[in-house]
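Two records follow; treat each independently.
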Amino acid sequence: MLRIALDVDGVLADTMRTWISLWNRSSDQKLSYEDLSEWDFWRRLGISSGEFMRLMNEAWRLWRRIPETEPNLSEKVSRLKSLGRLDILTARPRGTEKYTLKWL
């Protein structure tokens, strides 16, 4: 049986759009989605990984605002599931688990 694994952040859920919205509301340094050219872009903003994660956790508390990464994603995921076992993975902290499950 084929096993397929999909990550939540950045693969299914476009969390960075919500993160950017939160950042832009609280900072004078405005950021666009196109500015995300590397994984650790937050270093260019002069913030710590802890501050990045704090905003990411806040984004998940606003889970209704997080868009899918592409149109018709649930149909595409269903098609993948028909090919074998499908696992949804994440490294989200326990504190955001309930929001992640609601989003899914």
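The next record belongs to a different protein.
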Amino acid sequence: MATLIDFILHIDVHLIQIVNQFGDATYLILFAIIFIETGAVIMPFLPGDSLLFAASALAADPRYHLNIWIFIFIFLCACLGGDSLNFLIGHKIGKSLSNHSLFGKLIDKDSLERAKPSLKSMVRRLLFSPVLFRSLEHLLHLRQQVLVSPTSNLFVIV
């Protein structure tokens, strides 16, 4: 049991052994680790960041025949999927935990109610910000067309 815990906690150290033993299945193993670390609420002790760095370093070494682009895709899918699972777990059982006799004592109901309006305003701002940034991008592009392009064209002509 101690070796299993050591293996899980220091998987970045054992990554070369995983690559040598499992080959292309390494991608699936790393996907599962990142997905579980991100998605399972009770598993934040898994080595996420150090695993990303170690896997990227191994992908840079041609001896291990790992593709960095596959790693990027796998890790992105694992993070997004795990985050969505974590949100779904919180959404489904969050209310029941706040009403539970044991966990309900840990959650301050007044703070929870005060947080709801600020959460709604934050979501509104997050939904509005892409529109704002797109408008600013358009204005900056227009500024470049009006000011910079004629100046550069004049410089080329002279």
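Discussion point: The chain has six helices and no strands. How would you locate this feature using only the token line?
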